[in-house]
User: Fold Peptide chain release factor 2 from Candidatus Ornithospirochaeta avicola.
Amino acid sequence: MKPTKYGGVFEDSHTLDKIKKEEEETLKPDFWNDKEKAESTFSRLNALKESYYPWKDLISEIDDVSELIEMYSSEEDPDLEAELKAQIDSVIERFKPLKTKALLDGEFDKNNLFLTIHAGAGGTEASDWASMLMRMYLRWCERKGFKTEILELEENEGGIKSVSIKVNGAYAFGYLKGEAGVHRLVRISPFDSQSRRHTSFASVYATSEVDDSIKIDLKPEDYRLDTYRAGGAGGQHVNKTDSAVRITHYETGIVVQCQNERSQLMNKEMAFKMLKSRLYEYYRKKQEEEREKNAIQKKDIAWGSQIRSYIFQPYTLVKDHRTNYSTGNIIAVMDGEIDDFIESYLHWQKEE
Assistant:
């Protein structure tokens, strides 16, 4: 059976022709003369291959299973039936992530991601909650094979006040864009000597890394740039020099920080990338006249604005308030198993 368009992303002849054309470009003698163009070509080529070969292999496997079912449909063999069931289950498991990926068709879905977590109302409880969310996302990234880099980390008693993470990987933004919002925790506090139940909050910002083709006009009078001495990990050099960078954008009030690199110049470059990413998202939402609904940075990190609740007591439940998807396996969720929430959000977004 010849593969045809499937799941909105697979097209046999057209996609294969594009792959061959891009591969021919990479073989030209002067290909690397223009490094930026070469990297763009490889990016397109990898995206095409990712949208072609996994579906091609899956459809081939479906065809094989279909032929076996047709061939042995009249036989009653428990061992054969069990083997076919195992193959069908394998096909379903391979189909699930491809189906989710087919929903990632936004302009910047394929890009890297800047993920920022801020502790909200709840004091020490909220700081601990922010650190729990950080671990959840780092575990998810680890499972997906994405590379993460902590750009800024502000610790305080009980956990963290804020953290900014860069996630590098194909479709990192597309997968995690739906995590932006306020996350609510309900549990018996480990910090309360009377073991009372507490509610705490943390906010998550998810913005796409934007490339140089996206022009964000930044004038010196539009922002304030501060340098300061970084704390925490990084060795003696980091702690003895003003290498950390903080940029405050006056009009929007957006603040970004980077202290991960030893060089102030490198921290400054990364901070401006983060700022451009946040500004692009800010103005995009403003142009769509949905700023009040979607601009999470203007919402209180408190009751009534949460997108998801995580309840440890008196029962266990994680529920997304936009999609109504929920699960009782809160331990697995906190260990990074959030794919079902991601998929349900992407379907909900399509319907909206």
Q: What stands out?
A: The first helix runs from residue 12 to 26. The CA atoms of residues 186 and 199 lie 5 Å apart. The chain has ten helices and eleven strands.
